Amino acid sequence: MPRPKHVPASDLRLPDALQPGRPKGDQLREILESVATDAGPGRLMPSERFLAEHFGVARGTVRQEINRLVSDGVLYRQHGTATFTAERQAAHIDMLTSFTEDMKARGVVPKTKVLHAEVESALPRLAGRLNVPPGARVFHLERLRYVDDEPFAVERTNLSVDRFPGIELFDWETQSLHRTIEERWGVQAEWNDTAISAVLPDTGDAALLGIEPSQPCLIIEGTLHDQSGGVIEAGRSLYRADRYTVFTQARRSPA
């Protein structure tokens, strides 16, 4: 995303006043969304105080509508109360492909920083997800994902060391996990059990993603399987909701 720039109030082409007879909040939200679209991504929006005084509405009304636009991914907050126009892109649709390949296919530049990469003992819940005995050796990998140099997701995943011996020895900042598993061990992803929920990030994850703890995120918990039904990996990752859109397709099975 481009570095945020200040947008002078004179450049925003704000209406002089709200129209009578219509809810003020609805009008304000429409105006702000239009301004954000015209301004482009990464641009600083007017302050809550300025908007409240300009349109003659309560500051709480302004904050409420800005929060709604933040939840919708139109705006995002940064550095306290500053609000910027968001860039909606890089929707990670196919959970069976590698992150790197998926992002490159969308015309954006991916980058990875390894936060944690160690062999650990599986606790009972994780052991059940990986279909291994409790205490079995598992490789726990945490990576901070970037898109065009902006933090995008904190991905956390676990794999059985018995099934993938030596997996902890690879450089996971430069190599694709899925491609390496397929090329090194001949295992190909076939299907994924996935649960998606909306959450607020804790302070640590918010700092990693460069967002406020009040900004909504998506938790995606999944178990990846191969063609025979064997478990490849089990993970629980956090994605920025303003940069990530989930698409699904549903089809009724024949009766």
From TrEMBL:
One of its GO terms (biological process) is negative regulation of DNA-templated transcription. The keyword Repeat does not apply. The keyword DNA-binding applies. GO terms for molecular function: DNA binding; DNA-binding transcription factor activity. Keywords: DNA-binding, Transcription, Transcription regulation. Pfam families: GntR, UTRA. PROSITE patterns: HTH_GNTR (PS50949). Residues 1-25 are annotated as: Disordered. Residues 21-88 form the HTH gntR-type domain. InterPro entries: Bact_HTH_transcr_reg, Chorismate_lyase_/UTRA_dom_sf, Tscrpt_reg_HTH_GntR, UTRA, WH-like_DNA-bd_sf, WH_DNA-bd_sf. It comes from the Bacteria. This is GntR family transcriptional regulator. It comes from Amycolatopsis pretoriensis.
